C-alpha cells in the first residue's frame, strides 16, 4: 500500500461540489486502503470566497483559475460548475497541462464531449463523466466496460427526475400538469425556470451522451428530437391506464438497420414494463444487448450526495490509474459513424384523443383518411359525449412518423373535427 497524495482542484461549490467535498472528507481515512493513496482537495474555485469561509479552509479557497492551472502539484481537476463556458475552456486547458479531469457537466459533454475526449487522448489524460447522466446511478462505466462485449441495440430510460415526479403526482393524485409542477417547485425538485426539464432538453442532453457510448457513434444534443410533458393531462393518464399503460417521459435511443434513432418524448409504456414502476424523482436506464439481454439500472438521478458519489467514484478511478501508470486507457469509444435518422423517418404507434361530430359515418371517414396514408388503427374507443360532439381515443399500429403526421394535418383541418386534444407515442420494441 502506498501513502502518496493526489491533489484535487474543485471547480464550483454548489449542490454537487459540496457533495463531492463532503464525501471526500468523510472517506479520507479509508482512502489508503481503498485506492492506495490519499485524496486531498487542495484548491476550491468559487466566485465569492467569503460565502464559503466557514465550510472550506481559507487557504484552499480561490477565485482565480490561474491559481489552479499554474499549480503543477494539482493532479486532478473536478469541474462541477455547469454551463458551457468557462467550463469548456478550463477543462481543455487542464488537459493540455496534463491534468486529469472529472466533470458532471451534461450540457458540455453532450455538445463538446467528443472534442474534449480527443484532447484527453492527445495528452494521455483521463476525462471521466459518470455523473453527467443519471446522478448516482452507474451507467457510463457499465456501458464502456461491463457491457462492452455486447452489441447494444437499445438504451432508453427515465433520465429526468423532475418530470418523473410531476407525472407520478398526476398519476397517483389526479393532479393536472400545472399543479404538479407547482408542487415540484415548492419541494425543490423543479428550478425557478423549469424549461430544460419539462420540455425534455435535460433528458435530451443525457440521451446524446448515452447513445454516443452505446452505439460507438458521435451523437450530439442537436441530433435528439425533444418533446416535453406540458401537454399531458390527467385525462390522458386515466385513458392510458384503461389501455394497460403508464405515461413516462422517456429518452429512447435505438440502433436500427437504417440508422440511429434518438428521441425524448412522453410515451405510453405497458404497465408491466420495468420502467413503468419507476416513481417520483427516481431515474432508471434500460439497456438491451445481444449477449446480456435486458438490464436495468435504477436509483437517485440527482442530488448533492448521489451525484457527488458518481464524481468521487471517477476521482478514485483516476487515482488508481495514476498509481499504475495507465491513465487514458478508456477514452472516446466512438469509432463508428452510423447515420442519425430524422424524426420523420422513425416508427412508432400513436395514441390520439380528439373531439368529433357525433353523427353517422364520421368514424368511417376518419378511418378512411388514416388508411389513405397507410396508418392502420389498432383500437378505437368512444369515451364521452357532450351535445353533438364525441370524444374519441384512437391507437394506431406502428407507422412511420411522416405518414402519421401527414394524416393528422389533414384530419385536423376537417370540419367534423373540433380539436385534436392529445397525441402521445406508444412504446413498441419493434
TrEMBL record:
Keyword NADP assigned: yes
UniProt-listed InterPro entries = ACT-like_dom_sf, ACT_dom, Asp/hSer_DH_NAD-bd, HDH, HDH_cat, HDH_CS, NAD(P)-bd_dom_sf
Q: Which reaction equations make up its catalytic activity?
A: L-homoserine + NADP(+) = L-aspartate 4-semialdehyde + NADPH + H(+)
State the needed cofactors, names only: a metal cation
Top EC class for this record: oxidoreductase
The record's section on SUPFAM superfamilies has: ACT-like (SSF55021), Glyceraldehyde-3-phosphate dehydrogenase-like, C-terminal domain (SSF55347), NAD(P)-binding Rossmann-fold domains (SSF51735)
Family, as annotated: Belongs to the homoserine dehydrogenase family.
Q: Can you name this protein?
A: Homoserine dehydrogenase
According to its UniProt entry, this protein's organism is Anaerotignum lactatifermentans
Lineage of origin: Bacteria, Bacillati, Bacillota, Clostridia, Lachnospirales
Amino acid at each position: 500500500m502506498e501513502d502518496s497524495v493526489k491533489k484535487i482542484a474543485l471547480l464550483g461549490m454548489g449542490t454537487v461540489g459540496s457533495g463531492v467535498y463532503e464525501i471526500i472528507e468523510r472517506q479520507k481515512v479509508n482512502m489508503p486502503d481503498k485506492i492506495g493513496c490519499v485524496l486531498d482537495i487542495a484548491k476550491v474555485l468559487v466566485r465569492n470566497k467569503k460565502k464559503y469561509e466557514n465550510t472550506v479552509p481559507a487557504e484552499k479557497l480561490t477565485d482565480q483559475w490561474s491559481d489552479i492551472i499554474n499549480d503543477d502539484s494539482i493532479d486532478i481537476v473536478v469541474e462541477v460548475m455547469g454551463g458551457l463556458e468557462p467550463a469548456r475552456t478550463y477543462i481543455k486547458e487542464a488537459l493540455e497541462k496534463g491534468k486529469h479531469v472529472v466533470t458532471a457537466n451534461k450540457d458540455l459533454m453532450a455538445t463538446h464531449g467528443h472534442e474534449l475526449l480527443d484532447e484527453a487522448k492527445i495528452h494521455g489524460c483521463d476525462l471521466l463523466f459518470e455523473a453527467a447522466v443519471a446522478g448516482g446511478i452507474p451507467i457510463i462505466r457499465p456501458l464502456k466496460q461491463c457491457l462492452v462485449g455486447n452489441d447494444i441495440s437499445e438504451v432508453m430510460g427515465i433520465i429526468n427526475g423532475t418530470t418523473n415526479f410531476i407525472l407520478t403526482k398526476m398519476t397517483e393524485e389526479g393532479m393536472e400538469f400545472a399543479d404538479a409542477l407547482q408542487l415540484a417547485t415548492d419541494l425543490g425538485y423543479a428550478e425557478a425556470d423549469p424549461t430544460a426539464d419539462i420540455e425534455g432538453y435535460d433528458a435530451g442532453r443525457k440521451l446524446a451522451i448515452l447513445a454516443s457510448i452505446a452505439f460507438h457513434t458521435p451523437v450530439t444534443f442537436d441530433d435528439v428530437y425533444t418533446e416535453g410533458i406540458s401537454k399531458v393531462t390527467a385525462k390522458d393518464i386515466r385513458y392510458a391506464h384503461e389501455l394497460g399503460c403508464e405515461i413516462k417521459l422517456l429518452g429512447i435511443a435505438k440502433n436500427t438497420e437504417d440508422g440511429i434513432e434518438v428521441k425524448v418524448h412522453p410515451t405510453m409504456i405497458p404497465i408491466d414494463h420495468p420502467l413503468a414502476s419507476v416513481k417520483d424523482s427516481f431515474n432508471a436506464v434500460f439497456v438491451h444487448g445481444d449477449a446480456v439481454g435486458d438490464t436495468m439500472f435504477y436509483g437517485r438521478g440527482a442530488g448533492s450526495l448521489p451525484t457527488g458519489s458518481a464524481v468521487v467514484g471517477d476521482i478514485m478511478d483516476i487515482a488508481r490509474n495514476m498509481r499504475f501508470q495507465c491513465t487514458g486507457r478508456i477514452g472516446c469509444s466512438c469509432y463508428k459513424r452510423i447515420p442519425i435518422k430524422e424524426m420523420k423517418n422513425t416508427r412508432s404507434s400513436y395514441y390520439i384523443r380528439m373531439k368529433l361530430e357525433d353523427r353517422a359515418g364520421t368514424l368511417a371517414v376518419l378511418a378512411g383518411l388514416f388508411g389513405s396514408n397507410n396508418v392502420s388503427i389498432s383500437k378505437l374507443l368512444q369515451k364521452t359525449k357532450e351535445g353533438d360532439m364525441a370524444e374519441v381515443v384512437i391507437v394506431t399500429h406502428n407507422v412511420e412518423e411522416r405518414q402519421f403526421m401527414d394524416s393528422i394535418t389533414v384530419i385536423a383541418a376537417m370540419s367534423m373535427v373540433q380539436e385534436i386534444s392529445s397525441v402521445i407515442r406508444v412504446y413498441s420494441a419493434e
